[in-house]
Each structure stands twice: as C-alpha cells, then as structure tokens.
Amino acid sequence: MNILIVSESFIIRDALEEIFKVQLENENTKVIKMLHSQSEVDNIDFIFVDIRNDVVNQIKIVESIKKTSPEKKIIVLDSRKRGSVFKKAIKIGVEGYVVDILDRDEFIYIVKKVMSGKKSYEFDLIQDMLNHEEKHKKYDLTRREEEVLNLAGEGFNNREIGKKLYITECTVKKHISNIFMKLNLKNRKDIISYAKYNYINK
C-alpha cells in the first residue's frame, strides 16, 4: 500500500513515518508538508492529512481527491476539535477523523481499522454533531435564516449580508431578530460563535 503523510510539523511527519514503516511494516511511505494539488496523490492508496494550518485549502483538496478517487482512504488530523470542519469532512466522505494522537497503540488500531475498509471518527465530535442536529430540528431555522446566520458568522454586517443575498437591510435585521429568538442568543458575538461551530462550511 502506498501511503502519504501530509503535515507541516516535522515532529508529526517523522513520528508517523516511523509508525507506518516500523509498526505497520509499510516501506512505501512518503511525507510532504502540504497538499498543493491532486496530482500529488495519483499513485497513493492511503492519505493522512494534518489540517491544523490552512484548513480551508487542505479540506478543498481532500474534497477534490474524494470526488475523483473515492477509493482512496483518508484520515484527517484536526488538533483543534472544530465541529464545522468535522461535519465538512464527514460530508466529503473521509474514512477517519482524529482529534489528537495520545496513544500509539490506539492510533495503530485506528489506521488498521480504516485500512480494512471501516471508518473511525472521534466520539465526542459525533455526539456534538448529533446534539446540534437535534437542536436544529427543535429551533427549525428557515433556509434564509441559515444563510444569514452563516454570513454573520463570517463577520459580514447587515448591509453586506443584504447585498450578498439580494434582500434589504431591514429584512436582514428581521432574520437576525428571529435567529436571536429561536437560538436563545443575546448579541452579535453569540451569533458569530454559534455560526462558526455549527454552520460555516456546512
């Protein structure tokens, strides 16, 4: 099996290369700092991607890989435990999602599990996602309110949101007011925090 390890951290690159070559007895292991294009994985079967930096670009490339080569197995490492990134990765179809590597044996177990065709995700993130989905059903935001919430989370003001959605600033204010009420939020800062975790890059 041809394996690619992607991480800007030389510590992670060196440690994982040693694990794959020694513990998993796989000599066909290549390490790089960052994914730049899909051509880098043409002859690769298994990809381990550390996305702690340049998250948006790395996730986009992973998504492109999965669209054209769904048979390639991918494990994502996200040390910051970002719910929005996790949901995006699940939607893309990655086989594994690891928040941190604390135990060598546990990591080897996860890798072998994914290599065998199964999936492995962080339990806490799955629980958070399920809890959010349950809350979302309860609050029942409209599609337009979701769009406004997402843009607000990205830092756009009411006027900018209105221009992007082709609605008046007054209408945006009405949607913001509904979002406050439905999600029990108090101010704009709460909206930004909520949106960043639950909606951005959904």
UniProtKB/TrEMBL annotation:
PANTHER family on file: HTH-TYPE TRANSCRIPTIONAL REGULATOR YHJB-RELATED
Location of the Response regulatory domain: 2-115
Pfam (any one): GerE
Keyword DNA-binding: yes
Record organism: Romboutsia maritimum
UniProt keyword list: DNA-binding, Phosphoprotein
Function: May play the central regulatory role in sporulation. It may be an element of the effector pathway responsible for the activation of sporulation genes in response to nutritional stress. Spo0A may act in concert with spo0H (a sigma factor) to control the expression of some genes that are critical to the sporulation process.
Domain HTH luxR-type: 134-199
GO terms (BP aspect): phosphorelay signal transduction system; regulation of DNA-templated transcription
Residues recorded as bearing 4-aspartylphosphate in the entry: 50
One MF annotation (Gene Ontology) recorded for this entry: DNA binding
Listed InterPro entries: CheY-like_superfamily (IPR011006), EvgA-like (IPR051015), Sig_transdc_resp-reg_C-effctor (IPR016032), Sig_transdc_resp-reg_receiver (IPR001789), Tscrpt_reg_LuxR_C (IPR000792)
Keyword Oxidoreductase: no
Protein name, per record: Stage 0 sporulation protein A homolog
